[in-house]
Amino acid sequence: MKDEEALPHTSVVVCSYQPGEDAVPSLQALLGERSGNEEPEVVLVVHRPGSPFSRFLREVEDRTNLKVVEDPGTGLSRARNIGIRESTGGIVAFLDDTATPDAGWLDAIETAFDTQACEAVGGEILPVWD
Fold first, then answer.
1. The pTM of the whole model exceeds 0.70
2. What sign does the dihedral 93-87-49-56 (CA atoms) show?
C-alpha cells in the first residue's frame, strides 16, 4: 500500500469510446492543470483510439501523471468503473473527453470537499458549438 501522502489528491477519469482530435484539447488542459502544488493523476479509459489521437498519446507518453487504460468492452458505466479502479487519488473527478475544464477547476472541486460536508460535487457545463 502506498503512503497516503504520496497519493495524488485528485484523479481525473476521462472515458472515450473512440477519441479523435476533438479529445486532444481536453487532455492538454488537464495535463496542464495543477492541484495545489502537484499535477493531478489523469486516467484515460479508451475503447478504440483513432490515429490522430494516437499521435497525441505518443507526444505525452512520458508524462508520469497520465495513465492510459484500454477498455475491451463498451459502455460509459463500465469505463468509469475501470477508471475508478485504476485511480489512486482520494477524490475521483470525471470529465467528458471533449470537455475542456476552466483553469482552477480541480482547485474548486478540492476546496468544496475540504470545506463542505459533501460526498459529490457538480458544476456548470457550457456547450461550445461550431
1. yes
2. positive
**Spatial separation of the C-alpha atoms in residues 95 and 100, rounded to whole Å:** 8
For residue 96, give the nearest of 9, 30, 33 by alpha carbon.
Answer: 30
Residue 129 C-alpha cell reads as 458549438
Q: Nearest-CA neighbor of 9 among 79, 67, 88?
A: 88
Tens of pLDDT, residue by residue over 40-84, are 888 989 887 666 677 777 777 777 788 888 888 889 999 999 999
Q: Contact, 9 vs 114, CB < 8 A?
A: no
Residue positions counted in the chain: 130
Alpha helices, H only, the chain: 24-32, 51-60, 76-86, 105-115
